[in-house]
Amino acid sequence: MVFGKDGREIGILKRSIAVRKKILKQLTDIRPVKYVHCREKMIALTFDDGYEYTKEILEKLRHHHVKATFFMVGDWVEQEPALCRKVSEAGHEIGNHSYSHCDMTQLSRDDALVEIKRAQNLIGKITGKECTLVRFPYNKCNMALMGVVKEQGLQAIGCSFDSFDWTGIEAEMICKNVLESKKLKRGAIVLMHTNHYNTVEALDQLIPVLKRKGYQLVRVSDMLVKNRNKTDKELPVLLRVFRGEES
Ligand SMILES: [Zn+2]
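Above: the input record for the complex with zinc ion. Below: its predicted structure, written as tokens.
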């Protein structure tokens, strides 16, 4: 019989690793990712929808040398193909946010697939890049939707916390909501939107403070790629992360 360093039988050890890996795989299939377990001090700013102030947000991100992730709605992409291309060419990541921004939990499986595919095709055609991430409108999803996303080879992304910029609050308040959130930590995915000018203003205050706190501001997939090769020791942490619990 072979024993590992801690005295446990190797066979049992191997089996428990396999079981944990299986659980991890299942968890990522049933829940959108809310945090990414990171060694480096990284967070991802994400901007949903596309309407109204995408151009201004793009300019602020350029000014502050920051890359972000935009979850775009297909019908906006159809209206603003040049701007969508510009976002992609500036090095930002574009994710799929459905075609018509409906509550997808109310759709049949086939209609949900149409929503995803229509946005996917539009973004792919305009940017020449394939979307790998999807965020459901209103962050509402169910097992059936997770199944659709998995079939399409996409990763569902949720958020760690909301800046509540969509409520129309002042820029100072948006900053406060992000900077004072207990959920602001490495691997966090911050939810912001493109539909209020206050978000544009908030970035001038928010980005320098986040940088001073030592955070690298990156695209969601940068965090996912950097953390693809997990060691077994980290798996229990990952399990908590993918369940949406704080690490
Ligand atoms: Zn949205």
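Notes for the reader.
Strands lie at 42-49, 69-72, 93-96, 133-134, 155-156, 161-162, 188-193, 216-217.
Residues 167 and 196 are 9 Å apart (CA to CA).
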